[in-house]
Each structure stands twice: as C-alpha cells, then as structure tokens.
Amino acid sequence: MIVVHHLNNSRSQRVLWLLEELGIPYEIQRYQRDAQTMLAPPELKQVHPLGKSPVITDGTRTIAESGAIIDYIVERHGGGRLAPAPGTDERLRYTYWMHYAEGSLMPPQLLKLVFDRIEFGPSPWFVKPFAKAIAREVKKAFISPQLKLHLDYLEGELGRSDWFVGNEFSAADIQMSFPLEAAALRAGLDASRPCLYAFLQKIHARPAYRRALERGGKYDFASKI
Ligand SMILES: N[C@@H](CCC(=O)N[C@@H](CS)C(=O)NCC(=O)O)C(=O)O
Fold this sequence. Notes:
This protein is of the alpha+beta class. The chain is 55% helix and 9% strand. It has helices at 12-22, 66-77, 89-120, 128-158, 171-186, 194-204, 207-216, and strands spanning 2-7, 26-31, 55-58, 61-64. Helix 1 (12-22) packs antiparallel against helix 5, helix 3 (89-120) runs antiparallel to helix 4 (128-158) and helix 4 (128-158) packs across helix 6 (194-204). The two termini are 33 Å apart. The site of glutathione (GSH) has 12 residues, from loops.
C-alpha cells in the first residue's frame, strides 16, 4: 500500500490528486507545518533526510521529489494511463513539463516569496528602509520580468491545446498545477491570462481533484480561483 507523507497546504496535494485520478488505494500520514516558520515538523526527517513533502513509501521503497514520485506512480501503478507512450514526441513534451514545473517555474516564485518577506516582513528599524529598497529593486529588475516571461510563455502554450501535452489530460498537468496555483495566489496570475485561468478552473472541477482535497484537507492554493 502506498503511504503519502502529507504536509498540510503543500505540493503533496498533487500526489493525492494523481492517486485519485488513477483510483489507486493509499494511506495518508499527516504532518502539520509550524505556524510561525511554515516549515515541516522534524518527524518528516525520519522518512527522508530532507524532511520535505511530498514523500511516499511503497513497501520498502521511499521516494521523494514530486516529479520522481509522479513518474514512479504512473510507471509502476498507472497501467499506461496519464502518460503518452515512451519514444513519442508527446512523451518528450510530457517529460519537459514534468521537469519545467519545479526546475524553471518554481524558482522565480520562491524568490518572490523570499523578497516579499524582506520587503513586508519584520526587520530591525535600522535596516528596514535599506532592506525594503533592495527587495523592491530586485523584484522590479529581475523577479517580476521573469514571472511575466514564464506566464506569457505558458499562456501561449495553453492557447494551442487543451492540456499541456496536447488534447489529452496527463500527469504533466498535475505536475504543472502547483506552480500555477501558487502563481494565482501570489504572483498575479488572473483572468487576464484566459488560457491559464481556464486551466485552473478545469482542474478544480475534476472529481478526482475534489476527492483529493476532501482527503488532504485545507489547501489555500485551490481557493483563489
Ligand atoms: N522540489 C521539491 C520541493 C519540496 C518542498 O520544498 N516541499 C515543501 C512543501 S510545498 C516543504 O516540504 N516545505 C516545508 C519545509 O521545507 O520544511 C518537490 O517538488 O518535491
């Protein structure tokens, strides 16, 4: 039986959703973020040394990193569903999005989160004006243009097909969901990018997505759209 080590409000929601789409039975082991730091509790380090979520166990195997987890579940338990056939152009596109989500789309969002905290969070009075000015400048000169570049690119890509790999829903759409939900929450993704906005509306309407939410619990990322 697959056990999903599930941190509240986190990327592991994607794994629950994938398992629901495939109809694979699973158990949830729950972990709660620290209310101040938002970090995972130390118990998660007993499952994997980094103590990050998601991580799954399947028999004697422990698998971390959401892209690797999704690949593993689809290959081992998917029975050919939710991924294009190996060796096809569609499979190459699928692999691209599986890596792009965490490798390219998350980093500028993480930078925005960090520099927003520097700009708006607490800091000693004598550094506050400098910290604020630097954070504002880094966001203006680098982070915001990068986010715009990515979101414009993705809007164009989704203008050409129903889903990221073509007209078939695939696990790449599940992998892409988290950075796009995060962008809707914190990086200004809204109805002015109609294809991305419609993508979020479509995924939120999927019965398996809703079942995963019911089992996983509160998930801020789904509430914006
Ligand atoms: N690239 C990793 C990122 C894992 C990650 O940073 N997870 C966050 C939750 S969304 C986490 O565990 N944060 C709590 C912590 O770092 O203590 C993946 O996709 O699995």
